[in-house]
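Record Nucleotidyltransferase, 281 aa.
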Amino acid sequence: MDYKIESKNIEHPLLKPVLEDLIPVFEKRGIKFYIIGAVARDIILDLHNEKSSRVTMDLDLAIAISHWDDFKNISVDILSLSNFTKDPNQQQRFLFREKFQVDIVPYGSIKDQDDKIYWPPDESFAMSVIGFEEAEQNLISINLDNELHFDIVSLEGVFLLKLFAWKDRFRKTSKDAEDLGFILNNYLHINRDISYTEPYNKVYDLEDFTELRAGAIILGIKLNEMLSNSPPVKAKVKSLLEEDLKIEESSKLFNQIIETNNNLKFDDVAEAIALIDEELS
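=>
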């Protein structure tokens, strides 16, 4: 099923022209891609008549490839387009009209055993792609203006990828924690319809019902479903969450979430994370 959206409702003014250029490139090479990050989040919000508090002006794409030559060929094709140039400092980054950042992150069999990719030729630049294959199993199909068709990661997929991104770069930025808090704040509202169906409707039996607690439980159930065939990734998620649950007030994750989401309190965030962890059976 395609979800129909109109580009005029998307905060991102260049999403459509960027995809108009890139989709033919991916189709020509037979490369599967999907949108990740903040743009995926914002599209999901638009589907539910909501807006994000933080507008993003970049675009992140994940592409499944088997060999680094695939990325090289795609890069050549993209750079042959008049609107695109290459960022000289970031291997994955292209510039649309010289200033708009488009990150194209490859994953698949090019990753090594620690779920990282190492960019050729010297492999000095590494990126974690843990969770990308799992997120691919739970995509949302989008029809933009009845003209463009593409996939975006689901909201629980955004949460999964943001969680691992936070682990990698929380010392440099708090934006991942901000996005995680935003998802916690809004997850029940966005998933209200399914909350009345099994197994999600158990949230209405909570003794002390709050939307944050209920949303966390449903998010935990959805994550558990997404990771059902990936025990190693599920174990890493649980390890990450439980590490911060153990250190309580010293948790960098919880503190960054409350610092960037003013309506959330420390105890509420800790409880929400604990509820998610409980569902990851």
